[in-house]
Predict the structure.
Amino acid sequence: MIERVCLVHYNEIGLKGRNRSQFERRLRENIGAALAGMAAGRIERLASRIAVRVTDPEQTDRVACRIAEIPGVASVSPAYRIPRDPVAMEETALVALRSAGSFATFRVEAHRSNTDFVECSMDINRRIGAVLQRESGATVNLSSPDVTVRIEVVQGSVYVSSAVIQGVGGLPVGSSGSVVALLSAGIDSPVASWRIMRRGATVIGVHFSGRPQTSDQSERLVGELAAVLERSGGLARVYVVPFGELQREIALASPPDLRVILYRRLMMRVAERIAVVERARALVTGESLGQVASQTLENIAAVDEAVTLPVLRPLIGSDKLEIIAVARRLGTYEISTTAHEDCCTLFMPRTPETHARLSTVLEAWGALEHERMVQDALAGLEWLDYGGRGYRPPSRWPTAAGSSGGSVVAVALAAGVGGGGAQAPRGSSADDATGAESAERS
Ligand code: ATP
Ligand code: MG
């Protein structure tokens, strides 16, 4: 019997003992969650591979492309699964070769994961290669063939495929804890968020909107970006902070050249407070060294001084063109380049400080009622849940400085299950009734 399956390969380098079984379990669970509603059946763990049964053969490529987007997947082959029968191997190899479109040359690449199969890999290559050459008229080219037919003998079955889809690599989401990412509607921060998800972290996004001084266009774009990012399974929740009033307050009270640094320090403080509640261990930004005036080493240091959590900058050494290439691949570029006002450009001074002295920044910061401003920001929070793997939403919300146990407004919401967008659970820290009701239910 011929079955269609997607054969998933992952990078095992550095995976040993318990790590390895956890990695495989998580990856299996994450694949299962990503394929909900698609034509996929049983997900089996084989020797160093995962096989996903496809219930509608027509959908095999679609299922394979979806699997390739999941962090931890190195590659996926849309394959045929057959019994260990020499004749079936030949017939299926021919079907696989013919499904590869137009070609003039091919090669056969066989692997055995068990040595109890009588033929060695070389013998399989020769036998199947001769049949394919005779039946298709194509010639063998071992160094750069148009098509490679892979034959993998794994446990009790043989897997035959003629295509490989490159996966995103990395680690399964859920293996690296959570982070809070500062998510603008620009090009860089969605890419930074995705990079950190790919390393297995669950991301909680925080977007600072210029509302009420600007429209909510950036919020809508962040919603669209989130819908793309959630495909990796690593996006748990996105908070929106209306920030326009606080920026106006900074602009009125502070030296113009320091405004951007002060906005950023306040953003970091608010993000850190959210991270405490979310039990997140680091903050993430999309900065790249020297890309714009605010991204000099001096300014980065003057902003980081506002927080104690580590600040991760996955793009710090990337050029803009490299970041754009990733954004295009991910599907975020079009959204990020849609016209919108970023809150950082509100009340922008003509000559922002590029090499801030920490003592000058601290003096201006000390003149602000920054703790009250953080509380104002937290009081205006709104959020939307996405289907982040393994995410447990916080059941308490701190209103006291830096504490997770002080006076609380309960904000427990049911964890979002896939879908995101308009169907995802929403909330706001002003919405006491919703909080109290869901706290009772939980
Ligand atoms: P991006 O494309 O991510 O907006 P950028 O090159 O425009 O990056 P900046 O505007 O200087 O850079 O922002 C640097 C980083 O600060 C962003 O990558 C993001 O992490 C954070 N940031 C900036 N604006 C916002 C915002 N409105 N909400 C949340 N985070 C923001
Ligand atoms: Mg920006």
About this structure: Residues 259-277 form the longest helix (19 residues). The radius of gyration is 26 Å. The chain has 14 helices and 16 strands.
